[in-house]
Amino acid sequence: MEDYNPFEGINRKLDALLFEMKRQALPKATGTHQKEWGDVAFASQITGYAPQTIYTKAGRGEIPHIKRDGKLWFEKTALLKWIETGIIDKLENKN
């Protein structure tokens, strides 16, 4: 029998709330379809992960990125979709 952890449901709800708060804090689209790219600091700001965690996840292929001339680049929309997918997966896989 698995041990019941009453905090699992709370953690899932907090993850969803944090995602929504970050999503609402981002600037709204201006009608242009230009992609917004940034470096590790940019990805860190969007995801809330420490820069070292961003490097680790990129090295493992766990976060969407490209590497050009030895530098990591992250696209904002791809990061937001990656975050959303992870939160939805957590919510759908609740026990």
Write down the overall mean pLDDT.
83
Terminal CA distance: 13 Å
CATH fold annotation of the domain at 36-95: Arc Repressor Mutant, subunit A
CATH C-level category of the domain at 36-95? Mainly Alpha
- With helices defined by DSSP (H or I, 4 residues minimum), what is the helix count? 4
How much of the sequence lies in strands comes to 5-15%
Spatial strand arrangement across the major sheet:
1-3-2
What level of helicity do the residues show? 55-70%
Oligomer: single chain
Stretches with pLDDT under 50, minimum 5 residues? none
Number of strands: 3
Largest sheet: 3 strands, antiparallel
Envelope shape: globular
- The topology string of helices and strands comes to HEHHEEH
Briefly note the structural class of the backbone: mainly alpha
CA gyration radius, whole angstroms:
16 Å
